[in-house]
């Protein structure tokens, strides 16, 4: 039975009538402490009755086993079901002219990029299920005309939005230092692919290098192991579905080759792994890699393609008081890129690059922590310097200079709460063809 809130006050008044003032104040404080503890105990009982679905919101700021705070919420439960999520809305306004002075013909846009729900369930302290359900671009609202490729007789339809099961897996932590994971998994590469919740990374947009070099968000059906040590070492190693090279391109490299666990071809699976060191407080240094043959379909006439595709990155993140520094460099190699371009009928600057790479550095400083000590608010100016090239070497063809880009981003992020962010920035974009268009971005993001 809940103790009425008036009881502590009545007890305090009675004590004030018979004891000195100092003792009355001390007693009143003790009664207030007892009331707080009682409220906390009742809240915990209510949480347990709900099976953990109403778990403490303070746990949302904790990242576990490589996942972002919202995605790793289920790991913090004693048992039962967890519900979390995040969302992201973007408004953009491009310049009227490209860098060469030609009209850009781009209009201002607003897009509800994604609304995501995490649903997890802890069967026992060591066994759980976790999933991410994503609605993109405000959901699917219409039908689109199917466009058929005359060479492959396959059709595609570009809808205004999508509903995607981003990941869904079962996780068994056999030992504190060793776990087994199977299902649709996030490929453990880069800084963004596993940590893509908007309040986590600087910038209204994700870095281009982690879209076109590392094709985030990138998930694949597979299984593997993960673990960590008391000395700050974390690692993951998975066997997953391979990429499908029939959808590679010169401008977006391997991004179109993600099979995303949808009727995925398993002719050639791939290996993905990651190693991070967190031995110093606030510092993360790591490497990750992916490799596998990417030709999954019947061999073209007169060819015997393997198209081994390898990606590699080095990354780091350092946080000290209000300062955060992040950086990544990634590179990729597509073996038999010339033969693949021939098989796909690509010519000239449309041919696929044998090598591609990109990277960026970011800096952010929370001035609110200095100006208003103890405040929950965050006010953080940030900047990002980025460079990438999707066609470093093009066998049998020529590089399109528009695919070699540099981006300078300056902005500010405001957080009224650690889980809610408003970001506004300016992107100064350029490429070797002088055809890029710079733009302003404003993004609203949240997680829970």
Supply the key terms.
448 residues; mainly beta; Porin; 2 domains; 16-stranded antiparallel beta barrel; 5 helices; 13% helix
Folded structure, characterized:
The chain has helices at 6-18, 21-49, 209-212, 337-344, 368-371; strands at 80-94, 109-124, 127-136, 147-148, 155-156, 162-175, 178-186, 219-228, 233-240, 270-277, 283-293, 308-320, 323-334, 355-365, 378-393, 404-417, 420-431, 439-447. The chain has 448 residues and is mainly beta. It has 2 domains: 1-49; 93-110 and 117-129 and 171-447, Porin (Beta Barrel). The strands form 2 sheets. The protein has a 16-stranded antiparallel barrel with strand order 1-2-3-6-7-8-9-10-11-12-13-14-15-16-17-18. Strands 4-5 form a two-stranded antiparallel ribbon.
């Amino acid at each position: 039975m809940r103790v009425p809130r008036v009881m502590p006050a009545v007890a305090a008044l009675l004590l004030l009538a018979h004891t000195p003032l100092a003792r009355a104040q001390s007693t009143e404080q003790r009664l207030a402490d007892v009331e707080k503890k009682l409220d906390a105990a009742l809240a915990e009982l209510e949480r347990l009755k709900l099976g953990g679905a109403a778990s403490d919101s303070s746990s949302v700021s904790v990242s576990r086993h490589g996942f972002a705070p919202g995605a790793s919420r289920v790991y913090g439960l004693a048992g039962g079901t967890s519900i979390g999520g995040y969302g992201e809305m973007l408004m953009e306004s491009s310049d009227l002219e490209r860098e060469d002075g030609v009209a850009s013909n781009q209009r201002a846009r607003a897009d509800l990029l994604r609304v995501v729900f995490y649903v997890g369930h802890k069967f026992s302290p060591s066994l759980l299920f976790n999933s991410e359900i994503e609605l993109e671009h405000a959901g699917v609202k219409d039908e689109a005309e199917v466009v058929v490729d005359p060479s492959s007789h396959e059709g595609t339809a570009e809808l205004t939005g999508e509903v995607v099961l981003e990941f869904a897996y079962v996780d068994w932590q056999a030992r504190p230092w060793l776990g087994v994971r199977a299902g649709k998994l996030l490929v453990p590469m880069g800084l963004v692919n596993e940590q893509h919740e908007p309040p986590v990374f600087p910038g209204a947009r994700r870095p281009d290098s982690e879209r076109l070099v590392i094709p985030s968000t990138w998930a694949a059906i597979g299984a593997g192991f993960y673990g960590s040590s008391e000395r700050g070492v974390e690692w993951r190693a998975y066997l997953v579905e391979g990429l499908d090279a029939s959808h590679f391109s010169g401008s977006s490299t391997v991004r179109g080759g993600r099979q995303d666990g949808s009727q995925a071809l398993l002719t050639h699976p791939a290996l993905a792994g990651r190693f991070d060191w967190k031995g110093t407080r606030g510092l993360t240094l790591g490497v990750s890699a992916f490799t596998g043959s990417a030709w999954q379909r019947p061999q073209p006439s007169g060819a015997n393609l393997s198209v081994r595709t390898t990606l590699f990155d080095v990354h780091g993140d350092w946080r000290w008081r209000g300062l955060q520094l992040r950086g990544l460099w990634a590179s990729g190699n597509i073996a038999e890129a010339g033969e693949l371009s021939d098989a796909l009928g690509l010519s000239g600057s449309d041919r696929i690059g044998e090598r591609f790479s990109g990277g960026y550095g970011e800096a952010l400083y929370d001035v609110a922590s200095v100006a208003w000590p103890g405040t929950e608010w965050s006010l953080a100016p940030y900047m990002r310097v980025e460079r990438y090239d999707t066609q470093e070497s093009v066998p049998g063809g020529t590089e399109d200079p528009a695919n070699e880009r540099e981006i300078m981003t300056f902005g500010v992020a405001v957080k009224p709460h650690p889980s809610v962010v408003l970001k506004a920035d300016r992107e100064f974009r350029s490429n070797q063809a002088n055809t890029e268009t710079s733009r302003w971005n404003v993004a609203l993001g949240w997680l829970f």
